Amino acid sequence: MFDLTNPKPNFADNRGVFFFNKHKRDDKKTIDEMIELIRENKKVSDMILNDEAFHRSKL
Amino acid sequence: MRPFIDQSSKKLIQGKYIFLDNDFLGEVFKDEILFKDSFDFFSDGYPVIDPFTQFEFLRDVFLPEQRILKEKFITKEIFAPYINHQQVFLKLQENAILLSKIYMHQYQGRKNKQKTGPIDLLLASRVMYHSKQSVLVTGNNKHFPSFIFDVLAVINCQESDDSMRSFSIVEFSHDKFTNCYNQLINLENKTNNKLSSK
After folding, report:
1. B94, A33: Cβ pair inside 8 Å?
2. CA dihedral in degrees (B58, B60, B64, B67; nearest 10)?
3. What confidence tier does B115 reach under pLDDT thresholds 50, 70, 90?
4. Which domain holds residue B86?
5. What is the spatial distance between Cα B107 and Cα B109, in angstroms, rounded to a whole number?
């Protein structure tokens, strides 16, 4: 029973919480894709910062 | 940003789930060098994005182009999947209110009292819940204070204006928590005794 007026500490028993404990990752490919997303984000951010026409178009 | 990371502390996070606070995730999404160096450092662990951090990361995005990029970024397989379950959430709520009581109790009498927001309290409660196997990367230690958390390592970054910014890798300390919890219980018992004697 959970009671916010009388809370007790809760700790996981470390079973069944993270479903993919040995999660397989293709790190090199994923990292390259994520770097590409960061570069795209930078382009969008620079456009927001620098492009007055862009700001006017949103008014 | 130019990050400086002590590689000898890599072993401290080996095999652990590495929760990322939104301030760190936001910086990583802006800077590919910080992203590459820090995720290389995390390679022996499992970076995880908590659902509350995901909410913070995705909210208040003005442009659809940016929203799509953010959504693609946080759904990459490099992040271990975290299942959001209501039974766990009930436990987290209980941890979060308990932590907020401890924070306020410990901050009594201090000059710089910190008020920690609900998202950081819930994130702290998640790290507490998974404390045996988790760490957290944050740029704001005041929301994950030293009377509960231990700093394991620090990622220092030199910014473009030459100022330095730090992100800490913190771990929940059972000993520190037990000490604070006992102090809180003693205070509550004294208060209850006073009230019942009136």
Report:
1. no
2. -20
3. confident
4. 2-197
5. 6
- Examine the predicted complex and report whether its ipTM is higher than 0.90: no
Cβ neighbours of residue A17 closer than 8 Å, sequence gap 6 or more: B83, B88, B130
State pTM to two decimals: 0.88
Q: Which of B70, B82, B98 sits opposite A9 (nearest CB)?
A: B98
Q: Using an 8 Å Cβ cutoff, are B17 and B46 in contact?
A: yes
Rounded Cα distance, B7 and B16, in Å: 16
- How far is Cα B96 from Cα B39, in angstroms, rounded to an integer? 28
Q: Domains in chain B: how many in total?
A: 1
Task: Please state whether beta strands B164-172 and B149-158 pair in parallel, antiparallel, or not at all (unpaired).
Answer: antiparallel
Among the listed residues B173, B136, B129, the one whose alpha carbon sits nearest the alpha carbon of residue B48: B136
Tell me the backbone φ, ψ of residue B110, rounded to 5 degrees. Answer: -90, 150
CA distance B90 to chain A (A): 7
Dump pLDDT digits (tens) for B83-104.
778 888 899 999 999 999 999 9
